Amino acid sequence: PQLANQIAAGEVVERPASVVKELLENSLDAGARKVDVDIESGGIKLIRLRDDGFGIDKEDLALALSRHATSKILQLEDLEAVASLGFRGEALASISSVARLSLISRTAQQDAAWQVRAEGRDMEAVLSPAAHPQGTTVEVRDLFFNTPARRKFLKTEQTEFRHLEEVIKRMALSRFDVAFNLQHNGRRVQQLRPVDGEQARERRLASLLGAAFIEQAVHLDVSAEASGLRLWGWIGLPTYSRSQADQQYFFVNGRIIRDKVVTHAVRQAYADVLFHGRHPAFVLYLELDPALVDVNVHPTKHEVRFRESRLVHDFIFRTLHRVIADLRP
Ligand code: ADP
Ligand code: MG
Question: Ranges for the DNA mismatch repair protein S5 domain (predicted)?
């Protein structure tokens, strides 16, 4: 099973940023309202994530580290309409197969916390008491210490940290109601309070994407009653377009995705107004019935398949096109 874990780890754990992504997803799935992320040496030496979510039961702690153990999918039908960010039950198993992992957790029902550890090949998880408020702390040390070939592919600490920051940025854009704190080598890098309301959200956007983006961006919120689709967020003016596609964020039911259908619809909507080679900037949220979108396409869960892609495409295109047409000078 350890070999299988390491192979699977190759698919979900590519670099520190992918570890942070998986751990953040778990915290959000656990209903956390605050997540503290401590990083050392770009995440290669240490990734520590503490949340105030509902925690893991003492009995389930060791199980959480084993492959395909997920508490989120109870039956096959659940896979048809995944409501959580995680569902494959392989992140913690994969991470612990290529790093030294410690999991400390306490549920609301317990009066003490418990800890398990796993280290690369020695998957035996030992349960011991620990001190911790309600919630979970996951510590991942020495990533790829036992897979030197993979470790060689890591870039400088600075580069790895930039990737990791980008992951946190995306999560912070997907959950305005959650506080995110980030430290690197003991220095505070990001401190985001939970926000509510359009103005407060725009302040978070300004601190994540720069004030220039939000100063020119247009807010939209359009629902189609008949199909149950809703598209909201902010789109940049055609004149603001950057030369690189670095400010394009599209979330489907709270999950950041890359998708051909979406990309095409957005491009088409901007087609009349955008100069060749330019990239529109946007932060958009599509919400729809989870049964209409398949997220079980790839281990990283970045890809989706819409069950009615024509409908989704046309809704995005028409909604954006209407807004963009109004912006024309
Ligand atoms: P998945 O998220 O796909 O279920 P993971 O390997 O990421 O699989 O996590 C395994 C299980 O461990 C989860 O299903 C969940 O029950 C538990 N778990 C992991 N992290 C947390 C957390 N921060 N808070 C509460 N439970 C957690
Ligand atoms: Mg997970």
Answer: 205-325
Q: Ligand 1 mean position to 70 CA, how many Å?
A: 6
**CATH code for residues 2-192:** 3.30.565.10
Coil, helix or strand at residue 196: coil
Probe target for ligand 1 pocket from 13, 54, 92, 136, with the most ligand atoms within 8 Å of CB: 92
Q: Which CATH number fits domain 211-327: 3.30.230.10, 1.10.472.10, 3.60.150.10, 3.30.420.40?
A: 3.30.230.10
From 12, 29, 85, 98, give the residue whose CB has the most ligand 1 atoms within 8 Å, as the site to mutate. Answer: 29
- Rounded to whole angstroms, the Cα distance separating 16 from 199 reads 33
Burial track 20-55 (b if 16+ CB lie within 10 A, e otherwise): bbbbbbbbbbbebebbbbbbbebbbebbbbbbbbbb
pLDDT digits (tens, 9 = 90+) for 80-124: 777 788 777 889 999 999 999 999 999 999 999 999 998 876 666
Distances (CA, A) of 264 to 271, 279, 294, 320: 10, 13, 19, 12
Six token digits for residue 21: 């992504």
Q: How many CB atoms lie within 10 A of CB 297?
A: 14
Over the stretch 226-242, which tens digit does the pLDDT of each residue have? 899 999 999 998 888 66
Cα–Cα distance, 130 to 273 (Å, whole number): 59
Please name the residue that has the structure tokens 């084993």.
66
216 Cα: distance to centroid of ligand 1 (angstroms): 39
Q: Give me ligand 1 centre to Cα 26, in Å.
A: 5
In this structure, which ligand is nearest to the CA of 25? Answer: 2
Q: Phi then psi for 179, rounded to 5 degrees? A: -85, 135
pTM for the whole structure: 0.92
Task: Name the residue ranges covered by the structural domains of the chain.
Answer: 2-192, 211-327
Strand partners, 37: 49, 182
